[in-house]
Write a structure and sequence with these properties.
Blueprint (H helix, E strand, L loop, with lengths): L18 H10 L5 H14 L4 H8 L3 H14 L20 H11 L15 H10 L9 H12 L6 H4 L7 H7 L3
């Protein structure tokens, strides 16, 4: 018999709303901006005492989305109705020059050497392997890999086939014979 223990998150609710905040949220229900409307629905439901899982179920979104909206409103107030940038905040510090050079070296090898079934690198695969190999302290996105290649190594991902080589001693001859 297998018993799984889930970590239950404590219920979270929006803080008490001022009259102006409540009016802003009710006006947000009529917004043409889907983000504003959804946030307003979440926050008003929470102010009525509904728990995050129930709000998520009613609105067809994730429980974490509801919790994030509530946390954001509790911290920023009505400014939480304005969507923040979804751009990653820290792509620049994922790689320093040394780890970027190690990334280059990794990409010159076959992904199969790292237990992958493909012989071609993808940005996401490179991100996974970079983390597994200790090149990064945390998991990064493929976009971070692309930005690092461009910023620190001056390489554009689209041109990868021009600078990635194979450890195969016959690589150059095969490449020359493959012109179609």
């Amino acid at each position: 018999m297998r018993v799984t223990v889930r970590s239950m998150k404590s219920p979270i609710f929006v803080r008490s709303l001022s009259e102006n905040e409540r009016e802003d949220l009710e006006a947000g229900l009529r917004s043409k901006d889907a983000f504003v409307m959804r946030r307003s629905q979440i926050l008003l439901a929470s102010s009525r005492g509904e728990k995050a899982p129930k709000i998520a179920e009613n609105l067809g979104c994730g429980t974490q989305t509801v919790r994030d909206a509530i946390h954001d409103f509790n911290e920023r107030g009505p400014d939480a109705l304005v969507a923040r940038s979804s751009r990653p905040k820290r792509t620049r510090d994922a790689f320093d020059e040394e780890s970027a050079e190690r990334l280059r070296g990794m990409l010159h090898r076959s992904p199969r050497e790292f237990g992958r079934e493909s012989s071609l690198w993808t940005l996401e695969m490179a991100a996974e392997v970079a983390f597994e190999e200790g090149l990064t302290q945390r998991r990064v996105s493929g976009e971070t890999i692309r930005a690092t290649l461009a910023r620190l190594l001056g390489v554009r991902w689209q041109r990868a086939k021009r600078w990635i080589t194979s450890p195969d001693p016959l690589y150059e001859r095969k490449k020359e014979g493959a012109t179609c």
